[in-house]
Amino acid sequence: MTDFLIQHIQYVTLAPHPERNSLDNLFRLLDSLDVFERDRMLTWMYLAFLEAPVTQGTAETEEERLELRYNKFEEKFRHTATGVFEPFLVHAVVTYTLAYLRECGDRACLDAVLHKSQSALDVLHRRIAEETLLPEVGEAMIGNLEEHINNLHSDVELARQRYERFCEKVVKPMLP
Fold first, then answer.
1. What pLDDT sits at residue 38?
2. Mean pLDDT for the chain?
3. CB 3.0 to 4.6 Å from 39: which of 33, 66, 81, 152, for a disulfide?
4. At a CB cut-off of 8 Å and minimum separation 6, what does 164 contact?
5. What's the whole-number mean pLDDT along residues 28-51?
6. Better pLDDT: 169 or 1
């Protein structure tokens, strides 16, 4: 796959629309997505913003666990945005997510995705060894990444569909 969807191209080449690239609009659009799909779409954003997994004790179902993780992501993301020009941060995160989703949906890019994922695993292992990341926290993140790596080849078509849905449901409404 060498094709980009038009919404993707427009989003990364146009300046962010201040009202449409707000935190409130981003989370309204993300809230409208299926819980399981949203979780897979935001995998790398979770790695960027969430060090510790959300306490799982209060979640009775997988859906509730994913909602807890998403809510923690939203909380940390909103905190990060304090004092930052919101459209810039929202644009950066959406652009990064687009790149990740598109790359995972392209068979020609699987080696690069695998390499990046393996590098992230190496960083997590190193941080655990250096004691800058708690083992119980790092091990959960490592488990998620290993699952991602193991499913890369079989999930290419699903990743392409996620990319298309993200463009349609999140990116398109954010365009000027």
1. 93
2. 86
3. 66
4. 5
5. 86
6. 169
SS (H, E, C) the chain: CCCCCHHHHHHHHCCCCCCCCCHHHHHHHHHCCCHHHHHHHCHHHHHHHCCCCCCCCCCCCHHHHHHHHHHHHHHHHHHHCCCCCHHHHHHHHHHHHHHHHHHHCCHHHHHHHHHHHHHHHHHHHHHHHCCCCCHHHHHHHHHHHHHHHHHCCCCHHHHHHHHHHHHHHHHHHHCC
Query: Could you tell me which of 58, 59, 71, 68 has the C-alpha nearest to residue 30?
Result: 71
Write phi, then psi, for 83 (nearest 5 degrees): 80, 0
- Rg of the Cα atoms in the chain: 16
Which two three-digit tokens encode residue 168? Answer: 């349609």
Task: Report domain extents, the chain.
Answer: 17-174
Average pLDDT over residues 105-119: 85
Find how far residue 93's CA is from the centre of its chain: 8
| pTM for this model (two decimals) | 0.79
